[in-house]
Amino acid sequence: MKTLSNLVLGLAVLLGVVAWMADARAQTGSKKETGRANTVMQDVSPNELKARLESWGYKVGAHEDRQERTELLVSNDASRGVDEYKGFNMRMFGCTPEDASFMERRCDGYEFRAFLRPGYPVKNKTYMDWNREFGQTRAFDTQGKPRLAWRVTIKGGVTWDNIRATVDLWEQELVAYFDHIDASVMD
Question: What is the pLDDT of residue 17?
């Protein structure tokens, strides 16, 4: 009886691995098409990302910073339940070719960035606690303003569903960071 149970378990594991491999092969074997949510992309242009964010209901502006890096300025009418929420930036990195228009370059990653204005000083311990205990993001202070950042690479392949999941997770982290800063006042 034990042998039969082991055989059934082994068969179930084998079928799971075969299904996983077939799914992985189907995704990586796809051509690069930005219109399909499950197509694997190796890079993305700021223009494509801007269009996709707008299709998800965000308002998006774009500019090039002093170091000629493309930044998307992202906001949403819904404040996500946080009064101080004003949106966030997505700074593109690993972009080529340099002689292309800043919105047409192909980039292999982006960094979410936000700064907050809580209206009261934030202790260094608050940042250290966040960085040690919470989430994917990194908390720090710049010129007396709390900041939050998260660098995401798309090297090796990513889908629009993956990018949407990172945007959703970023917003959850941002709300949690607001809560963390508010709770730190009680310390």
Answer: 31
70-75 and 145-153 beta bridge pairing: unpaired
Question: Taking the model in full, what pTM does it have?
Answer: 0.73
3-class DSSP state of 113: strand
Question: Cα separation of 95 and 79, whole Å?
Answer: 31
CA distances from 27 to 24, 89, 106, 179 (A): 5, 29, 20, 38
Q: What is the DSSP letter of 82?
A: -
C-alpha distances (whole Å) from 6 to each of 2, 13, 18, 20, 70 are: 6, 11, 18, 21, 55
Query: Quick one: average pLDDT of 145-172?
Result: 93
Q: In which element (H, E) is residue 20 found?
A: helix 2-28
Fold of 32-184: Yope Regulator; Chain: A, (3.30.1460)
